[in-house]
Amino acid sequence: MSPEESELWRKIVIIHNHAKAHLIYCEEADLNQKTFLQPWNELRNALEHIIRAKACAVGLNHLVGDPADYQRANLDKALGHEYRAYFDVCDWLTVVLRQRIRETLAPYTEHPEIIREVIPNYYADIRPALEKLTQQIADVRTRKDIKGDVLEEVEQYNKIVLELKTFADDLSSKVPSLIELKAAKVAAHEKNVKLEQYKGRLGLRNAIIVGLLTVAVGAAITVWRIRTFPERPATIPPMSEQAAETAKIQK
Amino acid sequence: MAASHNTLREPAQPAVRGWHDVIDVAFPSFGDVTDATKTMTSEHSQRFRGSVRLATGRFYTSLEYETMRKEELAKPLP
Description:
The structure holds 2 protein chains of 2 kinds.
Chain A: H1 3-29, H2 37-57, H3 67-105, H4 112-118, H5 122-142, H6 150-228, H7 241-250
Chain B: H1 19-22, H2 35-44, H3 52-55, H4 62-74
């Protein structure tokens, strides 16, 4: 086997197993319990090219021109199908991960501060990475030609995919903390609401008491005055002599 | 005659051929997966061994997958 063929085989094996790992995961984690056939079709086509290359390698295909060229070309095609299978699976995987993450965090949508407290890197790293990855994988799938080092590209995406997978798997361990914190927040909120309602009721009660007291004090003063000064003078008291003189001078 | 090895050939004509003759022949394409595929898979499941998921029609049709994907991506993450 030439070094070039050996390298092609290495890439095929690695990418195939990355795709396989994600395919198994998706079949288990898909919320609809369904499989996606497109990657299987790509794997079937990859197998077809591998069989052609191997048939030539073991001397079973005598119709080919240059056997080395034939094998290399078929392995290259097989690698292309493995690459497409990988990104088809990744596309499905990002949807599955989004579903899992969204449904787990759905009860806390109204409380982003709880998510931020329990999962500090969610808003900073995880959510942007998931949004970005979804778009990037969709772009790769729509790209028809395969350029550059495919293994390097797959490894680069796989690193992000594995981080998100790990996050989605660990998310279930965060649920008790999320529930606990939400319960505490809700209890604190209810306590605040009750306190505010109590304050409101207290204010109203105080106002009524003050009003009643004012009326009572007013009534008491009136009663006291009536009892203390039972007859008020009916006429205006006569002017003093000095006042009468002053009035005359003024006239 | 040297066989072309850069592209998959058109599907073989319906004729019984020896294995030597089909090494370079592509499998027939199954095209888009539709509801008809599901019906056919379920109908023939008694005659073939294979995945229970396939036998019970638990796979996305092309349309179902695209719809599910679009709907999911349209829902905002918390």
